[in-house]
User: Fold this.
Amino acid sequence: MDRRKFLSDSITASIAGAAILTANNLESLAAKESTPYLVAVKGGEPEQMFDKAIEAMGGMKKFVKKGQKVVVKPNIGWDVEPERAGNTHPMLVKRIIEHCFTAGASDVFVFDNPCDNMQKCYARSGTEKAVKDAGGKMVSGKSENYYKNITIKGTKKIKNAKVHELILNSDVFINVPVLKHHSSAKLTISMKNLMGIVWDRGYWHRTDLHQCIAEFATWKKPHLNIVDAYRILKRNGPRGVSKDDVILSKSLIMSTDMVAADAAATKIFGLEPKDIPYIRMAHDLKVGRMDLENLNIKRIKI
Assistant:
């Protein structure tokens, strides 16, 4: 073979290969940049808003792969009906599970470590029926045997905790808090919802609640955070007293970043992220970002 022709063909092939690689990289980069950092949906029912949000985030298959085990952690802490807004809306939980199975999940587990009687919370909140109707599995959160010791490095107030084994053993962790008032933390949203995956929450309250919330958030970040703000408990939280404490907001926030999700939800509530100490602390600890003005946010109105 002519040496000059061989070299020419080799150079041409290398350039073509580099061009293809560059095109693929650019396409991947463009796709990444087009995916919003946070999605805010307004005006629909819980299922509708979730459908719109997850589509904007690239679909559930981006988070759940075939054969994976998923744990969905709503707030199911209180023995109250959905209209009281003390718990995550059951229809949102159901829709998330359905999307997980469509994406190929082998199992979807749901649990909480409630403050009220667990069986009553699971039933009256509507969560248990919603989960079973979607093909998911309700798991106990009220037995210490389910909780395993973990160590949290680089923290000041909370060095270890007992965490539910589902969080340790599942492939995908989806955090689904409800936005509501809280008498001690001001608001309970994504980061505070993680208190429902640990056994001894009392230590957090006895020590430094805001610091513990922020520090625990450094340990394990959920793959996806979905804030239910369909109904908002505006006062007397976290349980509420009556339906008079609730307003209908019809909103939903979705992000892979707990801090950003909580910051955006705080604004829905009528406050600023800086008003909530644990959000400021988590931002400073680089758990996530509260500087919403610098983030790629997609807003959807139904």
